[in-house]
Design goal:
mainly beta; 5-stranded mixed beta sheet; 41% strand
């Protein structure tokens, strides 16, 4: 019965965060170009160990051919001393033709209980063009010490 209560609780929670936008993008936003934002959603946001979560990041508000957000390196830090990186093999950028990617979806497994901060960084070379973070709570599972 406690598991069903936990599942209902999980269904009610969602965390999201906004993009940290570099000053250059903020300056362009003031000139009439819509400022990009990045939201993260982790499902489930509260789970029992071992827990598999799905994280979805969405880029919102940028022009479809935004050169700065075209073909970034995607770096994830999972808060459990692990990280992952994804690099796309993209064609050279062409204004008005190249399309930015709006959604990034990834899965991660947490083996141990704890509160973990998931961090996402979109990068061009060594420069972070956007970042965001969210939390996931992993509770002890049935076989864990302290679990029910």
């Amino acid at each position: 019965m406690q598991l069903h209560t936990g599942v209902a609780y999980v269904a009610l929670l969602a965390f999201s965060a906004l993009l940290t936008v570099p000053n250059a993008l903020q300056a362009r936003a003031q000139g009439g170009i819509k400022r990009p934002s990045l939201s993260l959603k982790v499902t489930p946001s509260v789970a029992f160990a071992p827990a598999r979560v799905v994280v979805v990041a969405e880029v919102k508000g940028a022009a479809d051919d935004n050169e700065e957000f075209y073909c970034p390196t995607v770096e994830w830090e999972w808060g459990d001393f692990t990280a992952s990186t994804a690099e796309a093999d993209c064609e050279p950028y062409e204004a008005g033709k190249s399309q930015i990617r709006r959604r990034y979806t990834v899965e991660h497994q947490y083996k141990n209980p704890g509160s973990f901060r998931i961090r996402l960084a979109l990068k061009k070379g060594d420069k972070v063009i956007g970042s965001s973070n969210t939390l996931v709570q992993v509770r002890p599972g049935l076989g864990d010490p302290g679990g029910q």
